[in-house]
Specification:
Length: 627
C-alpha cells in the first residue's frame, strides 16, 4: 500500500472502532438525540470529511453529479433524518470499497510496470582509450561502443562487435527461450545478457530504440478506448443526473398523496446510494487495462482497447506467407544431378562459387552449401537480372539460374518437376553448355504455423493466404498448413485489392485481420480492420504500421490474441450486466420500501468490489495455457 492508502485504512479502523463502541453504548444507554448526533459526527467526519470536501468542490466547479455528491447527499440526509448509524455505516463501507478499488488498480498498474520493466538504468559507455563509464542511456550517441556484462539489460539497439552470449528475451516476447548471439549479430534493447561480456556498437539513440518504442506503445494504449469504454463514460454522464432526479421525485411526489415524508426521504437517500456508478466506471477501464497488460506479458503488444474489442469480432484472418507462416530463410532442400547422384560435389561447388557474385537471398542460400570452397577458382562473372549468374570457374563457363537463363544460353534442360514433393524455387546448373542438374531452394515453415491455422479454424475464423510467391509454392504451403483459400503471385497492390474484396464480403459485424511482416506489407496492414505484424523482435516498421505486434514472430499468437480479446469482452459485459441488474433490482425494491440502506451499501460497494475482482482476472494471462 502507498501512504494515501495506509492513511485511509487507519481512518477506516478508527471510524469502525468508534462506530462499534457507539452502537454498544446506545444499545444500553438512552441518551438525548443531540448527544447522539454529536457523538456520531465524530466517526462520520473522520471517515467522510474528504468525500464532503470533494462534493463541495464539485458543486463549486459545476461538476456536480459524481459519486462524492451522491454519497454526501445520501449520508447527510440519513443523519438529518436521525438515522445516525446508517449514515456513518454507508460512508464507512463506501470508503472500504474505494480503498479496495485503489489497491486493485494500483496492483494492476504495478504488475504491468513490473512486466514492462525493461528500461535499463545505465549504459556502460566505452571510451577511445578503453575506459568504461556508467552513463544514462539517453546520453549515448549513435556509433558508440557499450559493454554489457552478464545479468545486465541491453540499454540500446546495436550490433555485437565482440563476445558471445545468450539473451533472455522474456520481457519482450513472453517466452523464456534464450537467443544466442555472436559478433555481427543485431541485438535490441530490453533483452537480458545471460552469459558472456558483449561489446556492442549502438545503432540508435535511446528515444528511437526498441525498448523506448514498446514502453511508449504500452503507456499510450489507454488513450485509445474501446467503444464499450466510451459508452460507459457517456452513460455515466447522463445516468447520474437521471437517478438524482428520480430520487428527488421519489422523496417528494409519493408523500404528497400517501404521507410519511421521513420514510420516503430515506427511500430516496437509499436510492442515491444504490445508483452510484462506481462499479462500471472503474471495472470496465480496468478490464481493458488488464487485457492489454496480460497480452503484453505474452509478447503481444496491443495499441489500445479499441483493437482488443475489434479482435474479439475477428471472423477472417488473412496471412502473408514469407516471414509470417514461413521463416523467411531460404535453404537448399534438394540437389540432384543429371546422373541421378544426390549432392554431386562438382555441381555444388560450381553453383556455390558462381553465386558469390550475387546478393540475392536465394544466391546466399546456395553459397552456404559450400561456404569454404576456394574462391580464387572464380575468375570472372556477371549477374543477369531476373535470370541468374554466368561465371568462369576453373576455365569453364558456368550458368546458375532459372529456366529463362538456360533457354537464353541454348542449354537443353527439361523444366523442373515436383521431385520429392517439396515445392520450391529451382536453380538450374550448366557447365560449358551442358546441363549438370538442379537445386531446389525452399523456405521452411514455422514450427507453430500449422497449429496457428487449426486453432483459428476451431474459433470459426476463415483463413486466407496472400503471397507474392509463385502459385505452385503458395498452393503447397497452404495445403501443408490447412489454409482454406490462397492467392499467389501477388504484388503489394494486388494484396490490397484482394483485402478490399474480402472486406466487402466478410460477415456482418465482424472484423478482418491481416498478419504480415510489417515491412513489405505495410499498405495491407493499414487497410485491414486490424493489422497484426510479426515484430521481428521489435522492428520499427512493424511497430509503426500495425495495430497489434507479435514480438516473437509466432503466428500461433494470433489465436491467443483473439482469445485474450474475447475473454476481455466477456468480462466487461459480465460486469455491465451484473452491475446494472443488481442495481435495477435494488432500486425497484427500495422504491417499494422492501429494502433499506444496508441493501444500498451492498448494491454500491459490494457490486463494485465483485466487479473489480472480476476485472483483475485479465491480469493473469499465460501464453497458450491462459484458459
Amino acid at each position: 500500500m502507498n501512504k494515501k492508502q495506509k492513511k485511509t485504512l487507519q481512518r477506516i479502523i478508527v471510524a469502525g472502532a468508534l462506530s462499534a463502541a457507539l452502537a454498544v453504548l446506545f444499545h444500553f444507554a438512552a441518551l438525548p438525540w443531540f448527544v447522539q448526533l454529536v457523538l456520531w459526527l465524530v466517526p462520520y467526519l473522520i471517515i467522510g470529511h474528504d468525500v464532503l470536501r470533494k462534493a463541495f468542490m464539485g458543486i463549486k466547479n459545476r461538476e456536480i453529479f459524481d459519486e462524492n455528491f451522491l454519497m454526501a447527499v445520501a449520508t447527510v440526509g440519513a443523519v438529518a433524518c436521525g438515522e445516525y448509524s446508517e449514515g456513518v455505516a454507508v460512508m464507512l463501507f463506501y470508503q472500504i470499497g474505494e480503498l479496495f478499488q485503489s489497491y486493485a488498480v494500483g496492483k494492476s498498474r504495478s504488475s504491468i510496470t513490473a512486466l514492462m520493466d525493461i528500461r535499463p538504468e545505465v549504459a556502460n559507455l566505452e571510451s577511445a582509450d578503453g575506459k568504461v563509464e556508467e552513463v544514462d542511456p539517453d546520453e549515448v550517441p549513435v556509433g558508440s561502443v557499450i559493454v554489457v556484462k552478464p545479468g545486465e539489460k541491453i540499454p540500446l539497439d546495436g550490433k555485437v562487435l565482440s563476445g558471445e552470449s545468450t539473451l533472455n528475451t522474456a520481457a519482450l516476447t513472453g517466452e523464456s527461450r534464450p537467443r544466442s548471439v555472436r559478433p555481427g549479430d543485431d541485438v535490441i534493447s530490453g533483452c537480458v545478457n545471460q552469459d558472456g561480456v558483449l561489446r556492442i556498437e549502438t545503432t540508435t539513440l535511446y528515444d528511437d530504440s526498441t525498448v523506448a518504442k514498446i514502453l511508449d506503445l504500452v503507456e499510450n494504449s489507454s488513450l485509445k478506448k474501446a467503444p464499450v469504454e466510451n459508452f460507459i463514460t457517456k452513460f455515466a454522464r447522463y445516468y447520474t443526473p437521471a437517478v438524482c432526479l428520480g430520487a428527488l421525485v421519489l422523496a417528494v411526489v409519493p408523500p404528497l398523496f400517501l404521507g410519511g415524508w421521513v420514510d420516503w426521504l430515506m427511500r430516496a437517500l437509499t436510492f442515491l446510494v444504490i445508483s452510484c456508478p462506481c462499479a462500471l466506471v472503474i471495472s470496465i477501464p480496468l478490464t481493458f487495462f488488464g487485457g492489454i497488460g496480460g497480452a503484453s506479458k505474452c509478447g503481444i503488444l496491443v495499441k489500445g482497447g479499441n483493437y482488443l474489442e475489434a479482435l474479439s469480432k475477428t471472423r477472417v484472418a488473412v496471412f502473408d506467407k514469407t516471414g509470417t507462416l514461413t521463416k523467411g530463410v531460404f535453404k537448399v532442400t534438394q540437389a540432384i544431378s543429371v546422373t541421378g547422384e544426390i549432392y554431386d560435389l562438382r555441381m555444388m561447388e560450381y553453383a556455390s562459387l558462381a553465386e558469390t557474385i550475387s546478393n540475392h537471398p536465394i544466391a546466399k542460400s546456395i553459397v552456404n552449401v559450400c561456404p569454404n570452397v576456394d574462391r580464387s577458382r572464380l575468375t570472372d562473372g556477371k549477374e543477369i537480372a531476373g535470370q541468374g549468374v554466368k561465371a568462369t570457374i576453373d576455365g569453364h563457363t558456368v550458368l546458375v539460374g532459372n529456366f529463362k537463363l538456360m533457354k537464353a544460353e541454348h542449354v537443353d534442360v527439361a523444366p523442373y518437376a515436383e521431385g520429392d514433393g517439396r515445392y520450391g524455387t529451382a536453380a538450374y546448373i550448366a557447365c560449358d553448355g551442358k546441363f549438370l542438374g538442379h537445386l531446389v531452394i525452399s523456405d521452411e515453415l514455422k514450427p507453430t504455423a500449422k497449429h496457428a491455422i487449426s486453432a483459428l479454424h476451431a474459433q470459426d475464423v476463415r483463413t486466407v493466404m496472400l503471397t507474392g510467391d509463385v502459385p505452385d509454392v503458395a498452393q503447397y504451403v497452404a495445403k501443408e498448413l490447412g489454409v482454406k483459400e490462397v492467392h499467389g503471385g501477388l504484388m503489394p497492390a494486388d494484396k490490397v485489392e484482394w483485402v478490399e474484396k474480402l472486406l466487402a464480403n466478410k460477415p456482418p459485424r465482424s472484423e478482418l485481420v491481416f498478419v504480415g511482416d510489417g515491412i513489405n506489407d505495410a499498405p495491407v496492414l493499414m487497410r485491414a480492420d486490424i493489422g497484426i505484424a510479426m515484430g521481428a523482435l521489435g522492428s520499427d516498421a512493424a511497430i509503426e504500421a500495425a495495430d497489434v505486434v507479435l514480438m516473437d514472430d509466432d503466428p500461433a499468437k494470433v489465436d491467443l490474441a483473439i482469445r485474450i480479446a474475447c475473454k476481455c469482452m466477456r468480462i466487461a459485459y459480465e460486469n455491465i450486466v451484473f452491475a446494472l441488474a443488481v442495481k435495477a433490482l435494488c432500486l425497484v425494491l427500495t422504491a417499494m420500501g422492501i429494502t433499506n440502506m444496508w441493501w444500498g451499501v451492498f448494491a454500491d460497494v459490494g457490486v463494485m468490489v465483485l466487479a473489480v475482482l472480476n476485472a483483475t482476472r485479465m491480469l493473469y494471462t499465460k501464453s497458450y495455457e491462459w484458459m
